[in-house]
Amino acid sequence: MPFKSLKSTLFEISKFKSFKSFKLYLLLNNNIPRKFASNIASKDDSLLKTKKSIKTQPLTTQKVISFVPAGTILKGINIFKNGSDPIAKLDDEYPDWLWDLLNEEKQNALKEHPYSRPALRQQRKQLIKNNNFDKSRKK
């Protein structure tokens, strides 16, 4: 694949909501080589060489499905020295929250939730400031 001009690349990036979704698009459509934990080349590299054309749609309307068929051995994903490569499951066997990880709107809504970690941290900071202020006034 020849290198694209900077202008065309910036135009492509502007079509996406974030740079993270653009990188995901590149991984799925342009087959950018990825580094795996194993340094031994697998015998069956056909999965890495195939190009899949997935039409991109906004993340809110597109139902996310796995692009690897069930039962496929996912070579090179193992992170343990003596472990074996995992086998892909059916989409129904994965938890529902897994498919929401790529949805930026749902992730942002979780961050803004009043019981999320950043919100609770902010509340604790404010409580400490109020308590310190009250202690300084009593003296």
TrEMBL record:
Record localization: Mitochondrion
GO cellular component: mitochondrial large ribosomal subunit
InterPro entries linked: Ribosomal_mL54
GO MF terms, alphabetically ordered: structural constituent of ribosome
Chain coiled-coil ranges: none
Pfam families (UniProt xref): Ribosomal_L37
Annotated family: Belongs to the mitochondrion-specific ribosomal protein mL54 family.
Entry protein name: Large ribosomal subunit protein mL54
Species annotation: Diversispora epigaea
